[in-house]
Sequence to fold (315 residues):
Amino acid sequence: MKQFLTVKDAGDVPTLVQEALTIKQNIGEYSDLGRGKTLGLLFLNPSLRTRMSSQRAAYNLGMNVMVLNLDKDSWQIEFEDGAVMNSTKSEHIREAAGVISQYCDIVGLRSFPGLVDRDKDYTEQVLHSFQKYCSRPLISLESGTRHPLQSFADMITIAETKKRAKPRVVLTWAPHIKALPQAVPNSFAEWAITSGAEVVIAQPRGYELAPEFCRGAEVSYDQDAALAGADYVYVKNWSSYEDYGAMPSVEGDWLLTPQKMKATNNAKIMHCLPVRRNVELIDELIDGPDSLIQVQAGHRVTAAQAVLKKMLETI
Ligand code: CP
Fold:
């Protein structure tokens, strides 16, 4: 595996998920595979799970890890080609990526969208600049449009717990106090559709995801109807794609409740974390017996280890 940026890089998703579940049974089996190799983890934004799970996965494979908060601990990076660098940005991506490629064997990058310029975010300027100038295998640790390691962990979670071959998976919008990226719902939708699930995306009007992420899914504006017969309910807030980065006013109450869950097929509840308790999802559902939220977070290590193993086998 040369890169892990979208679901297309995963190859056959069910096969990769099975490989990950095998790794989970014996996480120490490949503890020498990464000996002498270094993983560089570069963050332009905060992280708890992605940062720690990637480190843990690398250690399980015997790798060294270097973590750099590019936004705080390093020079500000200029991504525009031809820029006159007479402002606050001291280093160009060309030099930075070239240097990082000498120090690291595999590189991971987190680069959230700005939620201001849709074209800039959806063309993945930051991720693709790294890809262009970094000569090492590149892993997205969440980019402008996708969060593939999270989605891979989510698919592992569903594969491990599903009670029927084609589960009904409902991705439902939830309230939030600030505008969030579309990366997690975009990515979850494309991975779940590719995995062969029956996918329903439920959101208020104005919160439709980009069309390319909805192909193969049913789109609903009626949360109650969407929940009927669901096996999994994936709760997530996101901001508007159409009125890019905005939070259009919402009709009705989109906060999930135990009463609404009665319409499901004893559905399991999923969330990528971090979650704002009692804003996005209530305590009772986060902490209840149907919550898979901690299981998903645990599978972040499994997912990262499966990806790193594939990359180490090719370098
Ligand atoms: N789910 C997730 O990516 O968590 P972090 O932002 O803490 O890494």
User: Anything to note?
Assistant: The domain at 150-297 is CATH 3.40.50.1370 (Rossmann fold). The chain has twelve helices and twelve strands. The radius of gyration is 19 Å.
